[in-house]
Design brief:
five-stranded mixed beta sheet; abc type-2 transporter like fold; 14 helices; alpha/beta
Length: 382
């Protein structure tokens, strides 16, 4: 009898657990958006990042200043391009144009042949070739430096095998890493982490904060007051702008004091141009708040924005190594442009004239995202 009662009690417990399970599955089934996010996001991100994340950088954008204009210089240049690591995008006629191409980020490497290059090689005298590398991206620069030196040695050996009277390397490859010559990782990563922090706080806190207020009914209470929708929106985003600037200031102080990051450019320009990035990120957060029904959905959508921002913007992996379609997807991420701005100002010391394209892109993001988000916000609570 006692055994029977224990079995009957266990069966009742099991029935109650199954009833709760059934109820939870029904609730998940009804919440179509959360269910879709749960299964779709891992699939999309796995496929996207699986193709995007490449550590071997090829087709490095290169600018060439050939003062020799000889068959010998063309032969060595063909060795650079045939390696698959250097891709000539610009051929210029002065050192100043080389500097501008690398400062602006249009090229990551520069190859300069001296006027007497052909004469030196024909006489068996080591011919210097200057290779300038943008070392603000340490992964790209390390690979470019190693490949450039290897090409010089291999081509020298090839010619030495034909001309046995030569006594040493024919090509003197002189690599000059700019902006971060010692390859200190903190100089490259700390400015980028600052951008990630702003993205995380602006997108996640804004989206979840607005959804939380909608769940509590406080937004509807505000709408019965004389306040207008755009006034409400400005009141919502201004505190986050202040918060973003506080984060940036603290991160810069820590970067300089703890990691010794040099700030070569204008802090005033950095703070001014950061405003466009903050407003673009806020626009994303408000847009998410219009799509999400719950705080959990807002968090999932925010992470869906955050992960591509980390992996496709050039924060950790060089964009030049990504397939073309993934590279273009990265152009749809505000952080992509802000990383060029903050690394350019802090590490290169460049200013607005070199960053007009990035600023224009962030301005477009800010206007479009804030306009669309405000209109959807007004319609949703109106």
């Amino acid at each position: 009898m006692l055994v029977w009662l224990k079995v009957e009690g266990s069966v009742k417990i099991m029935h109650r657990i199954l009833a709760v399970l059934y109820k939870e599955f029904l609730q998940i089934k009804r919440d179509r958006m959360t269910l879709t996010l749960t299964f779709l996001f891992p699939l999309v991100e796995l496929l996207l990042f699986g193709f995007a994340i490449q550590t071997e950088v090829k087709d490095i954008k290169t600018v060439v200043f050939d003062q020799s204009l000889s068959a010998e210089s063309r032969e060595l240049l063909e060795a650079f391009t045939a390696s698959g690591y250097f891709e000539v995008h610009y051929t210029v006629n002065s050192y100043d144009e080389v500097n501008k191409a690398i400062d602006s980020g249009k090229a990551k490497a520069g190859i300069i042949f001296p006027p007497d290059f052909a004469q030196n090689t024909n006489r068996g005298i080591p011919a210097p070739v200057q290779v300038i590398v943008d070392a603000s991206d340490s992964l790209v620069s390390n690979q470019a430096i190693a490949v450039a030196n290897s090409i010089g040695l291999l081509k020298s050996q090839e010619i030495l095998s034909k001309k046995v009277h030569l006594g040493g390397p024919l090509y003197d490859i002189r690599v000059r890493p700019w902006y971060n010559p010692d390859g200190i990782t903190a100089y490259y990563m700390v400015p980028a982490i600052l951008g990630i922090l702003v993205t995380l706080s602006m997108v996640m806190l804004t989206s979840m904060g607005i959804v939380r207020e909608r769940e509590r009914g406080t937004l509807e209470q505000l709408m019965v007051t004389p306040i207008k929708s755009y006034e409400l929106m400005l009141g919502k985003i201004l505190p986050y702008i202040v918060l973003g600037y506080i984060q940036i200031t603290l991160a810069l102080i820590i970067g300089v004091i703890v990691f010794g990051v040099p700030i070569k450019g204008s802090l005033l320009q950095l703070y001014l141009l950061t405003l466009f990035f903050i407003t673009a990120s806020l626009g994303l957060g408000i847009l998410i708040s219009n799509i999400a029904q719950t705080q959990m959905q807002a968090m999932q959508l925010a992470f869906f924005i955050l992960l591509p921002s980390i992996l496709l913007s050039g924060f950790m992996f060089p964009r030049d190594a990504m397939p073309k379609i993934i590279y273009y997807i990265g152009n749809l991420i505000p952080l992509t442009y802000y990383l060029d701005i903050i690394r350019g100002i802090i590490l290169k010391g460049i200013g607005f004239p070199y960053l007009m394209g990035q600023v224009a892109s962030l301005l477009v993001f800010s206007v479009v995202l804030l306009t669309v988000s405000t209109l959807k916000f007004k319609k949703k609570i109106g």
